[in-house]
């Protein structure tokens, strides 16, 4: 999504601000128009907002750029609605070349369903707040490229294994 937003809009402590959308293209902050979406983004949001069962949460986040003055604005959109609508929303977004990601900063704790997310836990549902807590608990390990390459170039003998029983052709040794 692309929009122009006035530079003063955001909380000075968090760098974030809740926004509203007023068709055809206006960004609203504290009941005042503070920016406009570009034509394509506004058109997509208008179609999504036509359905009264879908609610839109817009958030402006300003990210400080290192060694530069000012900040880079980013607008996230979170969609809320009934689960049975998720496939239709997913298809519409895909046709519009927008791909849904896991939401950050949800303002309500509801069951989470993303038609663009591949999940290994079929049938297991979580809520938006549980999803956010899980993303906070992720530990990122720094892997040095030299270490990864050393593993590949180290000479070591691998042990032989039996041919899997479902493989019809015997492996040549």
In terms of topology, how is this protein built?
Layout: E1 3-5, E2 16-22, E3 26-29, E4 32-37, H1 39-50, E5 55-64, E6 71-80, H2 86-95, H3 128-136, H4 145-153
Antiparallel strand pairs: 1-4, 2-3, 2-5, 3-4, 5-6
Short description:
The protein has helices spanning 39-50, 86-95, 128-136, 145-153, and strands at 3-5, 16-22, 26-29, 32-37, 55-64, 71-80. It has 173 residues and is of the alpha+beta class. It has a 6-stranded antiparallel beta sheet.
Offer a few descriptive terms:
173 residues, alpha+beta, 6-stranded antiparallel β-sheet, 4 helices
Distance between the termini: 56 Å
Q: What is the makeup of the main sheet?
A: 6 strands, antiparallel
How many helices? 4
Residue-averaged pLDDT, rounded? 82
Morphology? elongated
Please state the oligomeric state of the protein chains shown.
Answer: single chain
H and E order:
EEEEHEEHHH
What percentage of the residues does DSSP assign to strands (E)?
A: 15-25%
Structural class: alpha+beta
Number of domains: 1
The residue fraction in helices comes out at: 10-25%
Q: Which spans of ≥5 residues are poorly predicted at pLDDT below 50?
A: none
- Determine Rg (CA atoms, Å): 23 Å
- Main sheet: which strands, in order across? 1-4-3-2-5-6
Number of strands: 6
